[in-house]
Write a structure and sequence with these properties.
The complex is a heterodimer of chains A (337) and B (168). By secondary structure, chain A is α/β, with parallel strands linked by helices. Chain A is built from 14 helices and twelve strands. In chain A, strand 9 and strand 10 form a beta hairpin. In chain A, helix 3 crosses helix 4 and helix 8 packs antiparallel against helix 9. Chain B is mainly α. Helices cover 78% and strands 0% of the residues of chain B. Chain B is elongated. Classes of the chains: A alpha/beta (337), B mainly alpha (168).
């Protein structure tokens, strides 16, 4: 009865436990700026070179290589091939000394990264692309006013946190001061269970998918690369986590315009550059209702696109090269030279 | 004894699994939204943070008793290094900003010099025209009516040379 689901799940578990993880982040790149753990990686365009650089900002709680997972399923590779000078903000892995870094400090790191990318590209401004939490930070930086940002794209980035789905429910009544001590790191062991609980049944069913993929070596590599990324979470600075959960999820501070960074209130309506807001219909980490309202708040120079995919599938699934990468390329060509 | 299920058995197994998945999904949906679960989850997070804090404190005390640098000593030194790096990069920001300003000023100065040089050339050309026409007058040639506009409206010195037609 080896074809029955229970046996296949067991085999999937065995494969996941024993199979070596494939290499990731293989697109050639050059580090053009570094500050502590942070590195800005440059991916030289291979097609007809365009002038305006694109700066990609991933989430802080995962590895940046999700945007360069494997050849053919790599956003950086696709953008570089389309001629865009592409820069990836790799946040790295925070160490104990980074525990006190808050949102203002992180936005300052981002501001400097964009500046160095523009200098390296010899361009006055850049297109800013933020994914998940990175999208929220990108929107915040643009709202606070950055002369270097000429256009903004957010992908699955929460801005209306009260609509943040199950994760919002998890953290609404949390005592952030106790749960996330300001000077310490929030370890992976604390955050991972919360993310696993977002889709408890999916944690079982994925083994079935792994077993199915094991019949096709190329597909298995793809699945294992994604699993590797899911396994390699990074800790979060306590001060950042505490502020993000308190001001974002508990007070809905971006939507209510109460979130102050460095003494300044973040007003999303102040974003004055062309903006593309992308949300995913099957996203249970950032539901559409949490991401899409950015377009409404920014106004007529923003537009919203909803894709029929999930939070991770949108960049590394089949929908990435088929729909999402061309969508980005088209927007970049529309808004900048 | 066979180990392979027939296609029918496999299909039935898949159907059963889908039913189980749906049922478990809706059960979890209910459980995860209950105040009891959410409260317990919050308490668990807080307890984990507390336990970690106690553990780190104990490790620090043990290291101190052995006259070894504690974890917090190492973290403190690393923090100082991070702060120094930030200060250095702030200085770099300033230097780069000044460099941008200098490039801008230099560009403006060069532009002003080019415009002044162009104005001088224009003036010289106008003078040469006037001289030529005066030379013609003294040689007994008829008075050129074009002399009047050239003398009445000298070229504006700030306008770029290429932008306006030359008065001949």
């Amino acid at each position: 009865m080896e074809s029955l689901p229970a046996s296949r799940i067991r085999r999937g578990m065995q494969i996941l436990a024993t199979a070596p993880r494939p290499p990731v982040g293989l697109t050639p790149n050059e580090v053009i700026h570094q500050q502590g753990r942070l590195a800005v990686r440059y991916y030289a365009p291979t097609g007809a070179r365009r002038k305006t650089p694109v700066v990609l900002v991933p989430s802080l709680i995962n590895r940046a290589y999700i945007l360069d997972l494997e050849p053919g399923r790599s956003l950086v590779q696709a953008l570089a091939a389309a001629g865009h000078p592409t820069y990836l903000v790799d946040w790295g892995v925070p160490q104990e000394e980074n525990g006190g870094e808050d949102v203002a400090f992180t936005l300052n790191l981002l501001r400097r990264s964009i500046d160095r990318a523009c200098r390296h590209a010899g361009a006055p401004g850049a297109i800013l692309f933020g994914y998940c939490m990175g999208g929220t930070l990108a929107a915040m930086l643009t709202a606070l006013g950055s002369a270097r940002v000429v256009a903004l794209v957010t992908l699955a980035a929460p801005v209306r946190f009260s609509e943040g789905g199950r994760f919002a429910s998890f953290v609404t009544s949390l005592d952030t001061t106790t749960a996330f001590p300001a000077e310490a790191l929030v370890p992976v062991s604390t955050m991972k269970p919360a993310f696993q609980m977002l889709d408890p049944v999916g944690n079982v069913s994925k083994h079935l998918a792994i077993e199915e993929a094991s019949h096709d070596p190329a597909r298995l590599v793809r699945v294992l690369a994604r699993e590797r990324w899911l396994e390699e979470n990074v800790p979060l600075p306590g001060a950042f986590a505490s502020e993000f959960v308190r001001e974002g999820y508990q007070r809905d501070g971006l939507w209510n315009e109460t979130w102050r960074v460095g003494g300044e209130t973040v007003r999303l309506g102040a974003i004055g550059v062309p903006t593309l807001v992308v949300s995913c219909a099957r996203d249970f980490i950032t539901p559409v209702a949490a991401a899409a309202p950015l377009a409404e708040r920014v106004g007529p120079h923003a537009r919203h696109v909803e894709l029929d995919t999930g939070h991770i599938g949108v960049v590394v699934g089949a929908e990435g090269p088929r729909r999402f990468y061309p969508l980005l390329d088209g927007f970049f060509r529309e808004v900048a030279s | 004894m066979t180990t392979q299920a027939t296609p029918d058995m496999k299909q039935m197994g898949d159907e059963l699994y889908k039913h189980w998945e749906r049922a478990m999904g809706s059960w979890w949906d209910q459980v995860l939204e209950t105040p009891a679960f959410l409260g317990a989850m919050g308490q668990n997070l807080e307890a984990m943070a507390g336990a970690r804090g106690h553990y780190e404190k104990a490790v620090d005390e043990a290291a101190e008793r052995m006259h070894l640098p504690s974890r917090s000593d190492v973290v403190r030194v690393a923090k100082v290094a991070s702060m120094l790096e930030e200060r250095l990069l702030q200085q770099e920001d300033l230097v780069l900003g000044l460099k941008d300003q200098m490039v801008r000023l230099e560009r403006e100065a060069v532009q002003a010099r080019i415009e002044a040089a162009e104005a001088r050339i224009e003036l010289r050309e106008t003078l040469a025209d006037i001289r030529a026409q005066l030379g013609g007058l003294s040689a007994g040639a008829p008075v050129a009516s074009a002399l009047a506009p050239a003398a009445a409206a000298p070229p504006a010195p700030s306008a770029p040379r290429s932008a306006k037609p030359r008065a001949r």
